[in-house]
Amino acid sequence: MIPSSYPEFLTHHYLITIVMIIVWIATYWFGKKANEHQIQYFTAFLIIVSLLQEIVDYILRVNGAEAGLYDFRLTKEMPLQPCHFAYFASIVALWNKNIHFFYVAYFFGMSGAFMGIITPGDGGIYNIASNLTAHFQHSLIIVNLMWCISALKMRATKQSILFALLILNILIIPVGTYNYFTGENFFFLTQAPVTIVYNPIFPISTWPWYILWIEMIFIPYCYLFYLPIRKD
Predict the structure, then answer these.
(1) DSSP per-residue letters across 124-139
(2) C-beta separation of 133 from 60 below 8 A
(3) Does a structural domain hold residue 114?
């Protein structure tokens, strides 16, 4: 059944979330037990699945636009949200075990993808397939991170939080420039996301002050996620 309302979308979303939580736990458990050959093959499997998901996602968006169900705009479809950077950084971390890409994937992913899962929006959701791909992109970041942590033994340091914050602020410059010339809202630099505007725990939702508020809470928020995988 195609979701025709936001409540229906949420029902599908949270059912998928329950399934993906099981997948996250299973991936972590398997990584703890896997031998060298299993790690090698499953790492390759995750990379392939992650890349295929992106290809399928874009194909579905184009097909949705042709059917008049989705507003496809090339400037809007660029992979420039924090979750996109987390997604591709997680793939690179799997590919070459680069710890710095893991830092970006982990802190961007746990702050962006994780929040996207627990506080979903309905933008771009017009059928079950689009619901699945939107969810899978966020969920695969967590899957990849669980594998990096359990199988590849990657860990975070206190300095890695500052590194992620530095990368975040560096990326704001080109992404903000892109937004200026295209009118898009990547990194939510032009307009605050709905989860901030209507969330009572966020005291500031007016531009540009909400950006500074997000910057302020980034370090303590990431510190909480640093604790379970701390190296120092």
Answers:
(1) T--SHHHHHHHHHHHH
(2) yes
(3) yes
The b/e string for 132-162 (b: 16+ C-beta within 10 A; e otherwise) is bbbbbbbbbbbbbbbbbbbbbebbbeeebbe
pLDDT for residue 135 is more than 60: yes
Question: Does residue 39 surpass a pLDDT of 80?
Answer: yes
The answer as to whether 1 is a domain residue is no
Q: What is the pLDDT, as a whole number, of residue 207?
A: 79
Looking at the structure of the chain, the number of domains it has is 1
DSSP annotation of 76 reads T
**Digit-coded pLDDT (tens) for 150-182:** 999 999 999 999 999 999 999 999 999 999 999
Helix 158-182 crosses helix 209-226 at what angle (to 10 degrees)? 150
User: Domain range spanning residue 214?
Assistant: 6-229
